[in-house]
Amino acid sequence: MSAGADVEGFRTLSTDLDDGVLTVTLDRPDRLNAFTVEMADELVALFTGVNTRDEVRAVVVTGAGRAFCAGMELASEGNVFGLDESQRPTLSDMDDLDDPRILRGVRDTGGRVVLAIFDCRKPVIAAINGPAVGIGATMTLAMDIRLASEKARIGFVFGKLGIVPEAASTWFLPRIVGMARALEWVYSAEVLSAEEAGDGGLVSHVVPAASLLEEAQDLARRISRNRSPVAVALTRQMMYRNSALPHPREAHRVDSLAMFYTSTADGKEGVEAFREKREPRFTGSAHTGMPPFYPWWDDE
Predict the structure, then answer these.
(1) Helices in 51-203 by DSSP H: which ranges?
(2) What is the pLDDT of residues 261-277, one digit of tens each?
(3) What would you measure as the largest C-alpha separation in the chain, in angstroms?
(4) Which CA distances in Å does 168 have to 85, 106, 140, 209, 281?
(5) Does residue 265 contact residue 284 with C-beta atoms inside 8 Å?
(6) Residues near 258 by beta carbon (within 8 Å), at least 6 away in sequence
(7) How far apart are CA 144 and CA 158, in angstroms?
């Protein structure tokens, strides 16, 4: 690991922090980085934890070895998805997602991960280095930008297992690629090549395998260096949440408050730096410096 290595104490993940970019590697290469309940817990902890770490400006997620993530570990005993089959939950039972009985016995583990990614205050980039199927594909949908190696293969293969798309992918995937393509990919359960995923708008760039991680890390630096952490955190949440609102008036309400508070804080330094033709020196913190209306959705 590099001089900037950052040891988190995880068992299914490895991390490395370098120049503001936290590279997170799914680290079960002997199992093609198959997803487990333990990995879900560690990913939730990681994406929740980075919100309090000002030294982390952006996150890159990749896989160890030749795979990104081969989906759920299907070799485990009992319910392979870690669910409590003794329960018969109803929709009203899902009103309290933190109820321990629901949290551990009913909630989709992939969904817990993508919700933690969705609430993250830092940009998140997927560097899909190889096969990414099932949760290996759907977890990337909550990430902001997906880069794929030419060796990547991406599959929403739930139909072949007799289950439904999970990890809130029925919310994310149609927004990324459109409803018709999302349905075709899920219905067919076919594994897409990197080029097919790129043509469909799922991945932004297909790059040589040897340069994938470097390109993802370079992109992470370009979008986060010399940026206000507060403005980036607000922008990320505004883009996702405002785009799902029924009327632009509701987005305008949030935009107005966000403009007001950023213009009176890091915005002053940004304007001054622009006038003086120098790099800005932003001091805002996405941990302790968010404006008082954030998180605004808690009041909705």
Answers:
(1) 100-105, 109-118, 135-138, 158-161, 169-177, 179-188, 194-199
(2) 999 999 999 999 999 99
(3) 66
(4) 21, 14, 11, 29, 38
(5) yes
(6) 234, 238, 291
(7) 23
